[in-house]
Amino acid sequence: MMLQEVAIGHETVRWEPVPAEEAVIQVQNLNLYYGKHQALYNVSVNFPRNKITAIIGPSGCGKSTLLRSLNRMNDLIPGVRIEGKVIYEGVDIYDPRVDPVEVRRHIGMVFQKPNPFPKSIYENVVFSLRLQGQKEGLDEVVEQALRRAALWEEVKDKLHEIALRLSGGQQQRLCIARAIAAEPPLLLLDEPTSALDPIATERIESLLLELKQHYSLIIVTHNMQQAARIADRTIFMHLGVLIEEGPTNVLFTNPKDKRTEAYITGRFG
Amino acid sequence: MNAAAWAQKKPSKSLKERAVVLVLFLLALVSVLTTAGIIFTLFGETLQFFRQVPLLEFLFAPEWTPLFAEPRYGIGALLAGTFLFTAIGLVVAIPLGLLTAAYLSEYAPFEQSVRVKGIMELLEGIPTVVFGYFALLFVTPIFQNLIPGLNLFNPLSAGLVLGFAILPYISNVASDAMMAVPRSLREAAYALGATKFEVVTRVVFPAAISGIVAAIILATSRAIGETMIAAIAAGQRPMLTLDPRETIATMTSYIVQAATGDQPAGSLASRALFSVGTTLFVLTLTFNILAQRIVERYRERYE
Amino acid sequence: MQKGLSLDSSQSPQNLRRDRINRLFARAVVIPTVIALALIGVLLLDTLYDTVSVQVVEVTETSGKSFALSQALTADQVIRLELLAQGKSPEEVAALMSDPDEMRVFRLRNRVELMWATQEGPLRWVVSSIDDERIANYSLFEGLRRWNELKEGLQENQQLRLNPWLDYSFLTRDPSRNPISAGLRVALFGTLWVLGLTLAMSIPIGVGTAIYLEEYAPKNRLTRFIEVNLRNLAGVPSIVFGLLGLAVFVRGMEFGPTIISAALTMALLIMPTITIAAREALRSVPDSIRFAAYALGATKWQTVTMVVLPSSIPGIATGVILAATRAIGEAAPLLIVGAAAYVAFVPRGIFSEYTVLPVQIYLWISANLSEFANTAAAGIIVLLVTLAGLYALAFWIRRRYRVEW
């Protein structure tokens, strides 16, 4: 692996990048502004295919903002301005000719708090198919998505009950099933277990490890142990700057930057 | 780099979204058009009215008799009736409403306040034609036994019942204002050894006074615009008097009387009707805007 | 409050007085609620009381006989007995009753009712003609007190009866100049027509406005203006909407005093109420749900129609029902746009003349009190029961379908 040096402001940071041909999505020189406030500084990183990449960092470091830039969810916030490129399946998704709605159909997302629609479990899972007017083969999709989300056995007898009656952990797995029902190659997860108890968290984590056979996963987490448990690669961010990126075990055992070291040893956060 | 086919914008889709926004915007404009319609029709007809009737006659003539052989157009007669009706209603509604507000914000436990609000909603939900019936057939006969010289149609019983019809407006807005008073103010007074009564009357009431005033103004506006109680029980005979035993007409009850009397469009009598409507509209709108301003100001102060 | 802290100070005359006032006030604040509740109770009881009266009727067209429940159970059986009692032969009666036209005329001119009591005994059927003359009408209390006296004073072809005005036939009879045979049928149909058309117009406008303001509107002065305007419109007296309807719909568009004029006027009147309720319902849908839909690739319109709107339907429905109760109870604007005319027939379309429940009640009250007080009271009970039903429905929807986020 080659070493690269890139100037960010007055800092010089080194990392070993994922080669472009192994990347599912590439971020190139991304700057993001909320009005006058800059939230991301010249971020460049390649996310590997069929792996789990964790983004960690203290709160307010821009990890969620980076994640939301990958499926253009930030467009929904008024006053956001973005420079740079995010290349996915050969397309810069910030190209003016690109429809952000289409982008979101190809990249799934799971949120911090479980947010099932107040509809039946079944209707939650098939929502993205309904959006595209698909009417046939829904039953098969529901079963496959729920099986992959490790929820099928628990809900197969009550598919038409309202989803809000499920427990928090079940709701979050339902949200994962909903996100993967349309088979997006890439799944973004924004602190998906932060609202859940340890047992539910453990189930989601083992689910994510299985999902990586079929999907590429990018997960934002405030929980370093979680990143260490499940992520193949980890990105550390601080104050909108990508400080360090690398294989998880390397980053956790041998951080190159003192801020990374300070964070993973719990000295700030 | 080219946008590949999978992600390309489809012009038809954005066209549809834009059409949706346009349709929704037009629907939202209906309310603006309604206001414009009210203003144009009322003011248009009223302008015509003042081409034929001098403003001085309108303001200072002692009678309102557009259908007489020698018609007079003194709005004063209708304003006096409206004033009597409204004032009696407020005399009933203000003390009852403020006490209820004090109960809701300071005394009532949660379940009890839900019940009291329910009763107030019940009062609010009773159609005013029913209140009118009650005033005329139940209250007036009782009052006639007690008060000599009381007409069958009189602002006294009508106003009394009106007081209950507008009571919910006062209690709702005033209790909101009182609940917005910060807890720290109350605690400061308790710490100085005040009783609850003293806290409520000397701390909470003064602190919430702008909201209470807004509540009263809002209720006044409702009372001025209240039609059926006045038309049924207060009377439809314009009279420049402040004697609550006399039959009177409010602006609203006059409008009912005149409009059910079938006057041809464009006649002076019909225009006179709209001039009363304009007066009513301007008066209630002024009161409403005033109340809103006051409410907005105290919201700013405490939020 | 501070009792027990210092016995001395709480025993001082001044503190005793403060304490007494404090306790009095704590009781006084409940009084208005009690009075309000009492007023509602008295109003209901008084109105119910007014729906029953004792009347003496001079029988000119009918037999003046009453028939026991054991003799007849259906209206047709009563009519047969009545026709026989009027001296017609069984053959004539059979012929009359098999002719639908004759029967229609008979039913238009007469009413068949079960009276609570007559001079001949309790719970008996009476057929009265609209030409029968009501000689005296006594309140329930007075009528019962003087029942025997009245019974003795009855002359030939006079009938004494305890009349429950609010019965099934009251709902199905056409209006009449004669209170004995006046009914609510036309007003009930008028209310249904006006309400249906009003809601059909005001729901799309009101909900559309709410969606625009909550989901689409940019934060600018025009939006702010629309919002302020809506709030002011909600405070405009209903009778002013009547004047607007009179000038624009009745006269300007030459719809005349018809259902369409009434419904247009009413739709504008309740539209702000619906908008305000719908906005609240839309606002209660958390943004996380919207983001979930966007993240799945929904367009804004898909998010609104497939997620936000369905989730807020219980709230919107509750608001619509409450607006409907307002539309049902409002008399003033409809009096102005022409519901006041005497209408004898059920409306046949949106350009029919009409009357509605509260207007019919107002007309009965203002027509001739001593004559129509009982029908007005019966009408009020029907109106209040209708409204109570709708409130219960709104309450039930609010409880049953409320989404706990």
Question: Any key phrases for this structure?
Answer:
heterotrimer, A: 269 residues, alpha/beta, 12 strands, disordered N terminus, C: 405 residues, alpha+beta, MetI-like fold, 3 domains, six-stranded antiparallel sheet, 65% helix, 10% strand, membrane (chain C), MetI-like_sf (chain C), transmembrane (chain C), MetI-like (chain C)
Helix-strand layout with pairing:
The complex is a heterotrimer of chains A (269), B (303) and C (405).
Chain A: E1 4-8, E2 11-15, E3 23-34, E4 37-48, E5 52-56, H1 63-69, E6 80-88, E7 91-92, H2 100-106, E8 107-110, H3 121-125, H4 127-131, H5 138-148, H6 152-155, H7 168-180, E9 186-190, H8 198-211, E10 216-220, H9 224-230, E11 233-238, E12 241-247, H10 248-253, H11 258-264
Parallel strand pairs in A: 5-10, 5-11, 8-9, 9-10
Antiparallel strand pairs in A: 1-2, 3-4, 3-6, 6-7, 11-12
Helix pairs in contact in A: 5-7, 7-8
Chain B: H1 11-52, H2 55-60, H3 75-107, H4 110-125, H5 128-146, H6 155-179, H7 183-191, H8 196-207, H9 209-225, H10 228-234, H11 251-260, H12 268-302
Helix pairs in contact in B: 1-12, 3-4, 3-6, 3-9, 4-6, 5-6, 5-10, 6-9, 6-10, 7-8, 9-12, 10-11, 11-12
Chain C: H1 7-11, H2 13-28, H3 31-50, E1 52-58, E2 66-68, H4 75-85, H5 90-98, H6 100-109, E3 110-118, E4 121-129, E5 133-139, H7 140-145, H8 147-152, E6 158-164, H9 168-172, H10 185-216, H11 221-235, H12 238-252, H13 259-283, H14 287-295, H15 300-329, H16 332-336, H17 357-367, H18 369-400
Antiparallel strand pairs in C: 1-5, 1-6, 2-4, 3-4, 3-6
Helix pairs in contact in C: 3-18, 4-5, 10-13, 10-15, 10-17, 11-13, 12-13, 13-15, 14-15, 15-18, 17-18
